[in-house]
Amino acid sequence: MDNCIVVTGGAGFIGSNFVNAWVMLGLGKVINLDKLTYAGNLENLAEISDDENHVFVQADIGDKETVAALLKQHQPKAVLNFAAESHVDRSIHSPGEFIQTNIVGTFYLLEEVRAYWSALNEDAKRDFRFLHVSTDEVYGSLTADDPAFKETNPYEPNSPYSASKAASDHLVRAYHHTYGMPMLTTNCSNNYGPYHFPEKLIPLVIHNALNGKDLPIYGNGSNVRDWLYVEDHCSAIRRVLEAGKIGETYNIGGWNEMTNLGVVHTLCDMLDQAQPKASGSYRDQITYVQDRPGHDQRYAIDATKIERELGWKPAETFETGIQKTVQWYLNHQSWVEHVTSGEYKKWIGDNYQAREKA
Length: 358
Ligand code: NAD
Ligand code: DAU
Fold this sequence. Notes:
Number of strands: 12
Structural class: alpha/beta
Largest sheet: 7 strands, parallel
Strand order of the largest sheet: 3-2-1-4-5-6-10
Strand content: 15-25%
Order of helices and strands: EHEEHEHHHEHEEHEEHEEHEHHHH
Distance between the termini: 58 Å
Bound molecules: nicotinamide-adenine-dinucleotide, 2'deoxy-thymidine-5'-diphospho-alpha-D-glucose
Radius of gyration: 20 Å
Helix content: 40-55%
Number of helices: 13
């Protein structure tokens, strides 16, 4: 077993940031298994496309033969599962894909990893890790006065997306308790940064603002999210992989709660500075639209455990991270153009045309 890892979903937003950093930091070989759904994009990996430490394989995590063959050939010391359907609004429109990938796909992946791990020698078995990348949404919704989510909070998922992630977290937990497999789970808050697909709030607002389109706020914009720069999420995952206690879960967050309206105002003000309009402010494009059904009011992460036990802290504040992000989008307009053609246009029609303006 050399220093090789398997990453699933490594052509998506967080997965590609993780794989790029892993290879550029010289941490070893990555076998990147991704189905390349609408959310997966090889352009996200352009900087490492010629690197011998990056091997890309287009496949479904539920494709048992391919997964088994990869594990046998590369003998990884860890498997990190980022692959998922990840957009809450899509899970409301068509939950089937979420059940298929996030629950059934994770189950098939776990079965193949179990077969591989069971056949390892005792030393390799002890050193192996399966790290499951999950979300704070499994804990449900907080009121304004509730304490932030701790690892001990009960699971109360409210959307088909969060319910499917909760189910996969439970499978991972069960494979540790039943089979003794060396599992780690991370539950992170909202990420932002490079390669974020413009169906999600921050990149959608930047894209729409620059194209003179409405900036759609669901409901009254008072919903609260905790925002973490994607590279900080990646550094936390590396730290959990390196030093996390087997069978444990770790909450990851930025101690940075903001209302959606606060986020959109910040983006408008930054764009007003970086790329001023001929007249007026980008804030003039803000439009209140029909709320997301079952919209969770507030998420907040208590990241004390990972900070205290593993010594991890985010490197970016929201101010520094959002500056980098806005600049990245201004500098990568051709990436945005490529990902906003075709299927993207259909999704925008499906999601926003039916929403009445409030
Ligand atoms: P994403 O939608 O940008 O990327 C998902 C990737 O998984 C894509 O490359 C896609 O092609 C791939 N994929 C989807 N189905 C697959 C399948 N059946 N087999 C193989 N590959 C498949 O998602 P993201 O925002 O990068 O999220 C990555 C992980 O992190 C997810 O598990 C998500 O639940 C979790 N997470 C995301 C956030 C966030 O703010 N984006 C926060 C916390 C946790
Ligand atoms: O909390 C972690 C989760 O964060 C991840 O598990 C998910 O994969 C990720 O997509 C993200 O989920 P959210 O639903 O919080 O992210 P999204 O960017 O879709 O929405 C952020 C907030 O902005 C949410 O309260 C809904 C609101 N929103 C979103 C869109 C797309 C709007 O007001 N208007 C919009 O057009």
